[in-house]
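>> Question from a student workshop board

For tomorrow's exercise we were told to take the sequence and the ligand below, predict the bound structure, and bring the output to class. My setup keeps failing. Could a helper post the expected result so I can at least see what it should look like? The ligand is fe (ii) ion.
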Amino acid sequence: MERLQTIEFAGWDATFSSSVRQTALEALEAGRVLYFPGLSFPLEDHENRFLDPAILDQSKNASYNPAKDSIGGTVCTDGDAADLKVLIRRYSTTAQSFLNRLLAHYGPALKRERASLRPAKAEGRVQSWRKDDTRLHVDSFPSKPTGGRRILRLFCNVNPNGRPRTWRVGEPFEDVAKRFWPELPAPGYINRQILSLFRVTKGFRSAYDHYMLQLHDAMKADEEYQRTVSQETIHFPAGSAWACYADQVSHAAMAGQHQFEQTFSLPVEAMENAETSPLRTLERIAGRALAEHHRLSQAG
Ligand SMILES: [Fe+2]
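>> Workshop helper replied:
Here is what the output should look like for this input. Compare the format with yours to find the bug.
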């Protein structure tokens, strides 16, 4: 399978023909990375100061929460904080408007989540193998169970020195899942209740979320897998953007600096072909539903 699907030059305000929209939708849901050459995100001169990693607190990125219109992860205060918020919010709203047009099929089901600015280098900030994003992995959130909702991310390399952002992209999700499934421990119901009760997790962690976390860890922990699995190195040039379902695409961020990222979530039911989702794929392998309880508890 081709890992990359190029969408030829599209400005942020582009409108897309129905055939381009369909190509993008099918490629994304099949687990490919959409690549937008030349889609740069210009900063105003006075905003270049936010490309300095010194704006960060202990976090790996400065983030913008659209639900609260607030920023975090930064030591900036007062006027600096206000200007930084304007910048990340501009990326956030631009990214949303762009994907709403390209992925019109999803309509309002595509929900905008947090955006981030990552001014620090991708390489050389590792504390533990579990947090080491230079190892191939699929995204899953330890403290925010998704209950099967998709994680779609739109990235833009804004490096001012022309430095590319380098990823490795691994094998298709179904192959990853089948390879590791036999070694993933089953979830403990009581344990997940306790996590929820003590608010370690925001809501009950579904069996799906449990398996996705285990899968994330099993991939990263396996040194031989990291070396030997079928993979491709991709360099995203400065001034380009790319998008993928990060819960599905096996990826590793190897190098690069200065990146914007906008996260979206989507219920599996809103997909054109839900069978390709990690939830449905894991359910086929498990032979049972993996997010039922989560849906019921959210509805109730
Ligand atoms: Fe990731």
